[in-house]
Amino acid sequence: TTITGISLRTRLTQILAPTPTPTHDEADRVFVYRGQEVRVREKVRVESQDPSLMAVGAKLSAVGHAVEGWRFKLGIVMGEEMEAE
Fold first, then answer.
1. For residue 3, which phi and psi values (nearest 5 degrees)?
2. What percent of the chain is modeled with pLDDT above 70?
3. For the CA atoms of 21, 4, 13, 17, what is the dihedral angle to 10 degrees?
4. Under 8 Å CB-to-CB from 32, ≥6 apart: which residues?
5. How does residue 6 score in pLDDT terms, banded at 50, 70 and 90?
6. Higher model confidence: residue 18 or residue 79?
7. What end-to-end distance do the CA atoms of the chain give, in Å?
8. pTM value?
9. Interatomic CA distance for residues 66 and 60, integer angstroms
10. pLDDT, tens digit, for every residue of 34-60?
11. pLDDT of residue 68
């Protein structure tokens, strides 16, 4: 028997089994998101083997580093003290 594609056994296990405590680095921290205090319940890491997506990610990373360098150099020219990140 299934309930919307999930077996009854799986559904009962989800309801009755204790949920594991989060083990990530931000488990008990509170953040402000859109004006409300929120707690991190779980973290998700997204991985892809798609070569196009990986190439776009690498290009965006390179652009980010280039812009960071330009901002630092512009700060020097403008006489502002900026720290390199």
1. -115, 105
2. 79
3. 30
4. 38
5. low
6. 79
7. 57
8. 0.39
9. 10
10. 899 988 877 777 777 888 888 998 999
11. 92
The candidate with the shortest Cα–Cα distance to 41, out of 25, 27, 23, 61, is: 27
CA atoms lying within 13 Å on the CB side of residue 21: 5
Contact 24, 43 (CB under 8 A): yes
Which helix (H) or strand (E) element contains residue 38?
Answer: strand 36-39
Handedness of CA 28, 29, 35, 41 (dihedral sign): negative
Answer whether 81's CB lies under 8 Å from 75's CB: yes
Per-residue pLDDT at 1: 46
Q: Residue 38 half-sphere exposure, CB side, CA atoms within 13 Å?
A: 8
